[in-house]
Predict the 3D structure of the following.
Amino acid sequence: MLFPKKAAHWNLSAVVILLAVCTLALAKGPKMKPEELVARHLEALGSPEARATVHSRSAKGAGRLTLISGSGSLNGPASFVTEGGKVLLSIQFDYLQYAAERVSFDGDKTQVGDIRTGIRSQLGELLLKEYNSVIKEGLLGGTLSTAWPLLDLESRRPRLKYEGLKKVNDQELLELKYRMRKGGGGLNISLYFDPQTFHHVAAIYKFRISAPIGFGPRDARQRDRRFKLEEWFSNFQTTDGLNLPTQWTIRLSIETGRGTYLAKWDMIYNEITHNLSIDPQRFVLF
């Protein structure tokens, strides 16, 4: 009678261990190579035929700027136009101190409009300088952009690393580390995908500027500066066979010795049109 009891105890322990291993495996996410994650993402985006058909896209809707670290908000019409590797993001506020947010890439260079004469926004300044490579790589705008690099890995040839499930803003998402073949500097780039749908739902770009050597920790103005740019995409809808996000949020966080700057730009697009004929000069701001 003793032997069966020991066997039952052993079997129960084995089940507990097996469940623990399975739970740990699930917590890390499904095992796959980076290329497999990209393939599933593209399949979720649309069929190869639907993806190949689109050469330009125009999204129109409403935009909103919210100063999280301060107070107040601005609203205005928003648009995102893209053709091939070219992009133009625009939100018109028509406010004296903040006329508009405009960022363009004409396939050669990035341009950023002034929010008022001679002054750019924090977002515009960073996109023109430290985050310029994000625009040139085609990352800005995610799958809303025809320049989305995961559509053409052969020409981009980035270094990809699949990191499994990660908790980001209370969401369990699949993380894909992205390193540009050329450029990017000290940028840390993470792309995130919904583990159920494989839609691209977020991108986070981080970098740090170290304090000059020779300054002590008491000099707050000379501390390291940390920058984090986030893109979040939601409310996916099907247009011409493609599952595209209709809501896009850009969040910017800048940490310095003087405090933290926080702001976000929300865009909701209620009209997406494909394959319009777009004047190349539309991507040139000046």
